[in-house]
Amino acid sequence: MTDKTSEKASIDKFDSQLMRGSLDLMILAVLDRDRQYGYSILQELRDASAEKVDLKAGTLYPILHRLEAEKLIRSKWDESTGRKRKWYELTKAGHKRLQQQAQTWHAYVNCIQSLLPPSLAQPLPAT
């Protein structure tokens, strides 16, 4: 792989190690918008990230099960769309965790930004 190909690959998809620590935050953020079923969560993550986050069902469902066991989300089977689907939504504890993780994530981004040399740093968006 040439340097240019390597550079492009890193822009096309986020590194799995980088994403690993942010998956809960991403999923909770998607569910904060509205209740969703598994495939729609995957699609929302892909669309919102310009296809940089392309999770597989085998990655998503264990996370959903863990978040449900931690009482951060709840699920309910529903057939109102004409197909039996398991819908997920945030609980009150899930909203609280989302707020906490978002604050932590912003602090982390600011920390990394301050460590980068000026030639690599990008201005942070206004909040």
TrEMBL record:
From what superkingdom does this record's organism come?
A: Bacteria
Q: Which InterPro entries match?
A: Metal_resp_DNA-bind_regulator, Tscrpt_reg_PadR_N, WH-like_DNA-bd_sf, WH_DNA-bd_sf
Protein name as it appears in the record: Lineage-specific thermal regulator protein
**Which Gene3D superfamilies does this UniProt record tie to the protein?**
Winged helix-like DNA-binding domain superfamily/Winged helix DNA-binding domain
Report the source organism: Polystyrenella longa
The record's section on SUPFAM superfamilies has:
Winged helix' DNA-binding domain (SSF46785)
UniProt domain Transcription regulator PadR N-terminal: residue ranges: 27-100
